[in-house]
Each structure stands twice: as C-alpha cells, then as structure tokens.
C-alpha cells in the first residue's frame, strides 16, 4: 500500500471518528435535564423559601435584576438583610472528583436588603456591592410570587 492511499485511509477514519464524536456530544446535550442549575431563595434567617429550577424561570430571574444597569456602590453599615439568592450550577467532573458526589455547587449569592436598592454579589473570590434600579427588586419579588 503506498503512502498516499494510507494517508487517505487514516484521514477518512479520523473524519468519521470526529463526526461520530460530534453526534454523541449533540445527543448528550439534547438529553440534558432541564434543572441542572438552580437558584434557592433564602429568608433573612437562612430558611429556603423557594427553589427555581426551570431554565425559563432562571432566565426571567436574571432579566428581572436588570444587570446591565448595575453600578458599583457601598452598602450602608446598618442595612438589614432581607433575602439571599444562592446560585447553583452542576458539579463538573474532573480527575480530582471522579468518585465524589454529583451535587450542585453554589457559585455565587445575591443578597438584597430591607428598603434598599443596593445589593451584595458574593462569589468564590469576590464580594461587591451594587446599586441596582429601584424597580428591579420589586420585579424579582413579583416574579417569585408567580
């Protein structure tokens, strides 16, 4: 068998393998459960009041906060915590956690305060205060009543 034929055979097998792998990835995405991520709504005492799991509701939640209009601010010292929203995503399999539990990981929290348009965004490595549109908190709370 000459080199050109061997090269074309190897190239053909590689191309077919790529197509099969892409098809498998696509079908896994289609079988993905809708509630892989979630948002827990906690009261100021830390009690879970509600859990948002549908992709559509999560998208509505994010849109209601009007994140494009946030600006950095400082939280007043005596602000009383009103609600906390814990944002979870699925645990990603890595070589370090192959045998560990597949529970969702809390990636961030959004804390809203009583009678304030300033919120705190807490992530793994950072905590920031933002002033948000005054109607955004009302929109989020109204969305949760539905």
Account of the protein in words:
There is one protein chain. By secondary structure, the chain is an alpha+beta fold. The chain contains three helices and seven strands; from the N terminus they run αββαβββββα. The protein has two domains: 32 residues; 108 residues, Dna Ligase, domain 1 (2-Layer Sandwich). It has a seven-stranded antiparallel sheet with strand order 2-1-4-5-6-7-3. A hairpin with a 3-residue loop joins β6 and β7. It starts with a helix and ends with a helix. This is Lipoprotein. It comes from Alkalihalobacillus trypoxylicola.
Terminal residue distance: 70 Å
Alpha-carbon Rg, integer: 23 Å
Q: What percent strand?
A: 25-35%
Here the CATH topology of the largest domain equals Dna Ligase, domain 1
Q: In sequence order, what are the helices and strands, one letter per element?
A: HEEHEEEEEH
Task: Kindly state the percentage of residues in helix.
Answer: 25-40%
User: How would the global form be characterised?
Assistant: globular
Low-confidence stretches: 7-32
The description of the largest β-sheet is: 7 strands, antiparallel
What's the total helix number? 3
CATH architecture of the largest domain: 2-Layer Sandwich
Domain module count: 2
The CATH C-level name of the largest domain is Alpha Beta
Strand order of the main beta sheet, please?
2-1-4-5-6-7-3
Mean pLDDT across every amino acid position? 75
Helix-and-strand structural type:
alpha+beta
Tell how many strands the DSSP assignment holds. Answer: 7
